[in-house]
Amino acid sequence: MANTEQIYVTQPLLPPLEEFLPYLEKIWDNKWLTNGGPFHQQLERELAIHLGVEHLSLFANGTLALVTALQALRITGEVITTPYSFVATAHSLLWNGIKPVFVDVTPGGFNLDPAQVEAAITPQTTAILPVHVYGHPCNVDALQKIADTYGLKVLYDAAHAFGVHYQGKSLLRHGDLSVLSFHATKVFNTFEGGAIVCPDEKTKKRIDDLKNFGFADEVTVTAPGINAKMNEVQAAFGLLQLRHVGNALERRREIDGLYRHLLKDVPGIFLPMAPDDTVWNHAYFPILVKPEYGLSRDALNDALRKNGIFARRYFYPLISEFPMYRGLPTAARSRLPVAWQASQEVLCLPIYPALTDEHVQRIALLIREPGA
Ligand SMILES: *Cc1c(COP(=O)(O)O)cnc(C)c1O
Questions:
Q1: CA of 264 to the centre of ligand 1 (A)
Q2: Residue 317 and residue 340: Cα distance in Å, rounded?
Q3: What is the distance in A from the centroid of ligand 1 to the CA of 16?
Q4: What is the Cα–Cα distance from 120 to 172, expressed in whole angstroms?
Q5: Minimum CA distance residue for ligand 1 atom 13
Q6: Which residue positions in the chain have pLDDT lower than 70?
Q7: Please, what are the domains in the chain?
Q8: Does the reported pTM lie above 0.90?
Q9: Of 28, 207, 209, 239, which residue is most buried, by most CB within 10 angstroms?
Q10: DSSP designation for 312
């Protein structure tokens, strides 16, 4: 009954269980469960090398990393951010008592529009919080130029950007820092987890203190920090994932290529690409469903569901539509037309390493002939 098998938008990367058991035995032997244990130290080192970044601090999840990143740079007042993201991006601002200022995304793309960022700056603005949506790099050069001109910090929500390289170096090396998520649904997962990537040791020390209650040493507490530490089981799993993530990215690239081949000439179906000069991670496979397709995005989504294919309208609704944001003057739909349209047209198709060519063919055929 292959045709009734259910396929979800993603499936976590899980290496063979027997490969994980030796790590657990080590933890049971040394009885160091958390607080910067040996696996935590090793994963910080290996990830920094793997990703090609200077410093990296592990977290229990990406949202705590975002909240802590804003505190590490002492961000206050107003922060310019995008409505086209997962809700945690803006929530991290509210958790810090910061006012989100929403700005539209670039026409033809999914990321914050630098021209509109500049127009939204006020005397209260202290930082920009852009998102590399789907792992597509933001216009990092234009954003940095604005930040330098106006004395603003740039914190990237890089939850989708594991392993992405842009213009010959890690995308995570841009801005003042970048935040990763290692949630189960991401390209690289530690069940739950995350990290902050930063360029200097002093910032890493402050981040490390903040994720551990603000302890600077055994008897000194320098800030009202939180408990956001990654534990040893998560870190051990991360080390095992690292051995498999290369193959996983390669398989994602193949699936992406197959979808593009099978869907390239479907009227009204657009297949967005990462910008030139990007070594992409194929974290998602977004398509845009335009009026010429004949069916609306939601009708296509329903048709797929009837056939056991669970795509995702990601991101819908916009963050600015949720009750805690929609009263903000910058949340008005009329100010965010590009993001709004994307939220109406995007459908993310299933993509994960265990997805087979037959699955992709089945999904593509349903999109080509939704009534069949
Ligand atoms: C997944 C995600 C987060 C949150 O990460 P968690 O690890 O789930 O807390 C933040 N921002 C974006 C864009 C995400 O996709």
A1: 30
A2: 9
A3: 25
A4: 25
A5: 86
A6: 1-4, 372
A7: 17-240 (3.40.640.10), 245-368 (3.90.1150.10)
A8: yes
A9: 207
A10: B
